[in-house]
Amino acid sequence: MSILPIYNCFHPILKIKTEPVKEINDDIKNLIADMFETMDNTGNGVGLAANQVGKSLSIFVINVSELEEYPDITPFACINPEILEYSNDTITISEGCLSSPELYQDIERPNSIKIKYYDHEMNEIVKTFDGFLARVLQHEYDHLQGILFFEKLSNFKQTLIKNKLNKIKNSKYDIDYNMINYNGTLKKSTWDKIDE
Questions:
Q1: DSSP string, 110-150
Q2: Domains and CATH numbers, the chain
Q3: Alpha helix locations (H) across the chain?
Q4: What is the pTM of this model?
Q5: Is 53 helix (H, G, I), strand (E, B) or coil?
Q6: Catalytic status, residue 23
Q7: Which of 19, 37, 124, 140 does the annotation list as catalytic?
Q8: Which of 13, 15, 43, 95 gives the lowest tally of CB atoms within 10 Å of its CB?
Q9: What is the rounded CA–CA span in Å between residue 62 and residue 39?
Q10: Which tens digit of pLDDT belongs to each residue from 56-106?
């Protein structure tokens, strides 16, 4: 397994809709294992999409096992996911993203969803999720569509955070994991800089 750099939200790969996975082979299984290790390495990630590590494939991984409200949900991968239903009731909660360091915004989303996906053994799964987990799934699913969470804000609110977005685009932040900037250069984690 390997820890992969995470791509900055302004990198072009995060604005392209991902391609469906045609076959779950060893390469795909290894990528999923790397994604879990990469997410765990950040220290605070609960979801990670394949395009966030530079692979334009319809895969994301979820790990909420350390949260008190989900003691029985083991980490899982969603391959070729499709959200079938959204609830009419919505909830607004602060969201962040590993590709957008130091940015947190209140985002309104449906409180529950019904989703279909394949697991790493190519079993079809159809489940309904609600609460925070439904939000995480929607956030990661948006990544696969080329949608960033702050794009759900009104134009006015996006204007208010323009300075924060420029800071992210220009790599003016400290992070505990390596990141690929929008121009393809590597920004090393604060830990890697200490080791140099």
A1: ESEEEEEEE-TT--EEEEEEEHHHHHHHHHHHHHHTT--GG
A2: 6-80+88-108+137-195 (3.90.45.10)
A3: 26-42, 131-144, 155-160, 162-169, 190-195
A4: 0.95
A5: helix
A6: no
A7: 140
A8: 43
A9: 9
A10: 999 999 999 999 999 899 999 999 999 999 999 999 999 999 999 999 999
